[in-house]
What we know:
Largest sheet: 7 strands, parallel
CATH topology of the largest domain: Rossmann fold
Structural class: alpha/beta
Strand order of the largest sheet: 3-2-1-4-5-6-7
Helix content: 40-55%
Order of helices and strands: EHEHEHEHEHEHEHEHEHEHEHEHEHHH
CATH class of the largest domain: Alpha Beta
Strand content: 15-25%
CATH superfamily of the largest domain: Glycogen Phosphorylase B
Number of helices: 15
Radius of gyration: 22 Å
Number of domains: 2
Shape: elongated
CATH architecture of the largest domain: 3-Layer(aba) Sandwich
Number of strands: 13
Distance between the termini: 16 Å
Amino acid sequence: MRKINLLFIIYDLDRGGPEMRLLDFARFFPQEIKINICVTSKSMALLNEFQKSDVDIKVLPIIKAYREKEKIYEIHDYIKKKRITVVNTFDIKGLMIAVFIKSFLNKKIKIIHHTVDLLHNYKIRHKASLWFLLKFVDLSICNSSHSKNILKGRFIGQHKIKVIYNGVDIEHYNQNNYKASSFKKKHNIDHDKIVLGTVANFRKEKNYPFLLKAFADLDKKHNNLVLLCVGGGRELDEMKEYAKEIGIEDKVIFTGYSEDVADYLGIMDFFLLCSLKEGFPNGIIQAMSMGIPVIASAVGGCNEIINDQETGMLFSPNNALEFEKCVSRLILDKDLSLRLGNNGQRNTRERFSMKTMIQSYLKSFEEIDGKV
């Protein structure tokens, strides 16, 4: 593989989808691929993790890119100094910076925009900006066909869009690496309890009120249940209060943010995701990699990961009756639970391994770099 110098312009290095994907690049890319990162804020929670890899990090806080041209020129000088040929972006601010540099300072660079959300939180002016800026990119990489379908036609031509599914480190997310009994004891969970769990930050689209209310109903039918909620976020305290209101606070464990969710996954009997919207949820493939049966709402990329009744179970979003029926079936039918867990694990290792993802990204970077 020939040497390629890449720049990634990213808002922060906190624990989120784009940041974790970039950390995967830093850990698993071959040494011929030089990763340079420009962070446009001072949020750097993952800095120590990135510094364990051979990456160069430039911190340059930018509030309004169109008002801080001197900083854009500084990034251009950095690109020139590092002999960067491909610039990667994840948000409108980063894309605006890259497009300005390509249009006025260095027409030779190639731009890859990574589409990491579903645009549902974008205001009209943001969608208009994205529509304009995407005309200048050489490639847009989406992590699901659902995301691709949102972009194509309205924002960018189909020939400039590629889908690369997220990958999971199947060596790390391996049930054999974790002792469920000792971790259950640590969290005061009796060995005979059935642990229903989820890994998702507390945001509106994750639909935690639905999950908590459905769990309360299930708890009346199956009296040996525990709900494990792994994640943090702005709605965490509100959901703790809601759990008290509906009388399940002693049966729900809220862990807050976790740097490594594998230990928590290791004690789950079933993995649940009740989202209203999804791109490509990493939690599902992490759980599947560990052989945990998955029940998820049939939204976004969930439909691309799960073959209903074969590798997991899907239910209509916000349909409590369907959801509770799925959970009860798995609790009562151990053969079905085992089959779905095994099939899901095999599916993940065949389609969503870290190796497969890394190879796909490397091929894309080589193709784009070859056009410089």
